[in-house]
Amino acid sequence: MKRIQLLDKEFVLSIPASDIKRAIWDMAMKINRDLHDKNPLMVCILNGSFMFSADLMKLIEFPCEISFVKLSSYHGMESTGEVKQLIGLNENVEGRTVVLLEDIVDTGVTIDNLVRQLKTQNPADVKVATLLFKPEACTRDIKLDYVGLEIPNDFIVGYGLDYDGYGRNLPDIYTVVK
Ligand code: IMP
Ligand code: MG
Asked: Is 71 among the domain residues?
């Protein structure tokens, strides 16, 4: 298996780009079917979700907008449990279907906070589309409408996900070697 080094940690290939591509394709087909008449506002959650959002959006077949929010909760390999909103949403979401595009739901704190915050602005609906989900790590009771792949509770990098800023450019996903 292919191994890489990022800063002080070693990682091993765990999800090849071809598996990511297939998962995103399946998700896009479901979103096309479910939301084609909803004029949804797609919201990419920066930084981690930039690559997933770009690839998913290329497969969306109905007219829709995309916007960006920037949140931060991770430091190194740990979730801090505190979610900082570094860039907010400018669009008015009242009465609209909003689809949050997340790279990964880990403890669930980030997405739970964002969904709650959005709901105070009276959207018609808030849907969550996450490329990856760690069911064993999740501490919040959240509804995930679209999940690409369920993964074990290990720290990963690649395809937008980082270890202290590094690894986001990798087309495949790698798991830390313990
Ligand atoms: P949560 O709030 O614990 O669900 O974590 C959400 C955010 O933490 C994600 O959007 C990622 O940016 C980051 N994150 C969670 N797990 C990992 C991981 O294994 N590697 C890199 N970043 C992660
Ligand atoms: Mg993220």
From this structure: yes
Distance CA 112, CA 139 (A): 10
Question: Does 116 reside within a domain?
Answer: yes
Distance of CA 167 from the midpoint of ligand 2 (Å) = 14
Q: What span, in angstroms and rounded, lies between the C-alpha atoms of 129 and 143?
A: 10
The residue from 26, 103, 106, 112 that is catalytic is 106
Nearest atom (ligand 1) to Cα of 47: 12
Output the tens digit of pLDDT for each of the chain's 178 residues.
Answer: 899 999 999 999 999 999 999 999 999 999 999 999 999 999 999 999 999 999 999 999 999 999 999 987 766 677 666 677 767 888 899 999 999 999 999 999 999 999 998 999 999 999 999 999 999 999 999 999 999 999 999 999 999 999 999 999 999 999 999 8
Q: Name the residue among 159, 103, 163 with its Cα closest to residue 133.
A: 103
Distance 33 CA to ligand 2 centre (A): 26
> In terms of residue numbers, what domain contains 31?
17-151
